[in-house]
Amino acid sequence: STYVLDTNDKPSEKCGVLNVTKITENGKKVRKNWTSSWTVLQGYSLLFAKSQGGGTSWFGSQSKPEFTVDLRGGSVDWASKDKSSKKHVIELKTRQGTELLIQSENDGIINEWFKALAETISAHAWE
Ligand code: I3S
Q1: Where is the PH domain (predicted)?
Q2: Which residues approach ligand 1 with their CB closer than 6 A?
């Protein structure tokens, strides 16, 4: 279950469960660790929290984000085949030197996320 709130004066806000792994942290390659994460796009921040499975709410017992990335000055693209054997993988790079792979088995869901991330990043470029 994902939702999008689009208004004229705010970047979109969105949340849902995605498979996520870091591949680079502060410019250094790190070992992949795919995790199912509650992912929340809020302004220029992308927040991740360990998923409790299924339809668990963000406001559940463990609502603290595991980590947050700042999308300002970042880039988003579809990951090339050498980055992952999985289907529907987004590669997100931050200005701080963190690279993430974000994946969903559902191509409709991942396309919506790609659009929302790309819109957020390009909205910042125009500010
Ligand atoms: O890019 P890699 O190293 O082939 O990534 C795979 C590994 O991280 C693997 O774990 P270990 O080699 O640490 O056991 C994961 O299980 C795979 O999911 C990773 O590859 P994909 O293609 O799924 O991103």
Answers
A1: 22-122
A2: 31-32, 34, 84-86
- Distance in Å, CA 32 to ligand 1 centroid: 6
Which atom from ligand 1 is nearest to the alpha carbon of 83?
1
Tens digit of each residue's pLDDT (9 = 90 or more) over 21-68: 999 999 999 999 999 999 999 999 999 997 665 455 555 545 567 899
- What is the position in ligand 1's atom list of the atom closest to the CA of 32? 8
pTM of this structure:
0.83
d(CA 102, CA 34): 9
The alpha carbon dihedral of 100, 101, 106, 111 has a sign of positive
Smallest CA separation from ligand 1 atom 4, residue: 84
